[in-house]
Amino acid sequence: MLKMIFACHFVALLLITCFLIQCPARDFVGINLSYQVEKVKGANGGLYSTCNADCSCKSDWNPVCHEASGYTFYSACYAGCTEQTVNSSGTFWDDCKCLDEMASLGRNPLLSSSDNLRQGFCEKKCGYGEWIFLFLLFLSVVASFASGIPSQQIMLRVVPFQQRTLGIGVHWTFLRLLAVVCKLVSILAAILGYMTYRPNDLDNGLSVQTADSRGPLSLTVNDDRPVINSKVLESIDGAES
Q: Residues 131, 89: contact at Cβ < 8 Å?
């Protein structure tokens, strides 16, 4: 039975790696994707390009999406769009100079100068990743609980018959105490991570968090919030003034 218990816990430990499965991050033009259709990191991103230099864009966070490629622009103005169409399907933008410029580079066959941009975020589909995650997580839970009955039988065999009730009580008491300690540690870690969370973009010029945060826990985030007090907004406000 000990072999079965160790085997179940070993399988559960292997399957817990399903939490490493990730969905692809959104591509934000000017943030983590340049107007030359190249991935950028750190402070190399910039919202301005030759295609929107004369647009006098404001700092309003109003994203638009190119559905074919999944690219999201900060706003229609930063995409260089000049024509707006509103219908029952939503708000669309045409004649986008930045989209035309990116399509002319030929680095992404999904980009076309005849396409339009839709108001809102681009949704990134995870494909089969989420189903694989749920399946592996289910198997991990099954493997974890499969060791419960063998361990219970071992305990009943090694404890004298007259003390089985006491043995079961002591066993579950220590088990619950261990669970409480682990739960308290996880809760305190979450609180500490929240209090010390500091996204990279506050000091590297990015307007959307696309990398890891800084702090004792070094949490990994993929945040789609608008810019607040970042250098990108400072540069935009300086250009407007």
A: no
